[in-house]
Amino acid sequence: MSITDTGTVRWNPEALAEIVSNDEGRPVLFTNARILTMDPLIGTMTGADLLFVGSLVVGVGPGIITAAGDDNAIVVDCTGMTIAPAVVDTVALAGGRGHRSEYVATLTPGNTPDFLVVPDELAADVSSAVATLLTRPEQVRALVAAGRPVRWAGTDVPGRATAPEAGVPAAEDLTGSPRVGVWIDRNDFLHQELTAGGRYDETRGGRPHAYQGRYWIDGDRIDYLDDLGFWAYGEFQGDELHHAGYVMKLG
Length: 251
Known about the structure:
By secondary structure, the protein is mostly beta strands. 9% of the residues lie in helices and 41% in strands. The chain is elongated, with a radius of gyration of 23 Å. The protein starts with a strand and ends with a strand. The N terminus is likely disordered. It holds the Pfam family Atu4866.
């Protein structure tokens, strides 16, 4: 680590450039770190490595570095650093998970590489590591989301994803969309009409206009904002629309 004339921490800039331009599926290895996995079986490891490919953690623990050359891995030296989950399972932190399989966002093989890299002295535990991100973000060496850097050496990574604008978006013109029409559940109880103008109108048990409001589609997700003020959610799965326990098809 070194400090530039502007006071910015320099930390593995070559590795950042390699990760950002990694379109070939090369493995990425963060090595020689203290890792707070939050997995009750694995626990905390020192002098350990975190290996991921794309958006999947494939290995955690000491000794993975020995295969880095064989696998053409991008290596990030984390000497003096702690790696902690960036997505925190507060229920697990409070001891409220009864089974290991219930833990959310652990740094475990098979999970998504969402993590922070923070100097050891600022990361006594997961809570303090996350607090560093919120209160002293310039001290965070890396914030990685689904395997892609978001922050690096205390600054935003160029081209990083940005949050959607706050507020209710304008309705999209869905004329011609195959998802516009009347969706009917298997028991013919719920009829949900999605209009091209971004409005929905539900008939329930023969009762018209039971719920009405606006909707937005993002990929296979549909969000509803009812005129009564509440929000709801659904998901398109093939030719079905799943919403609030109902499974519907276009009528």
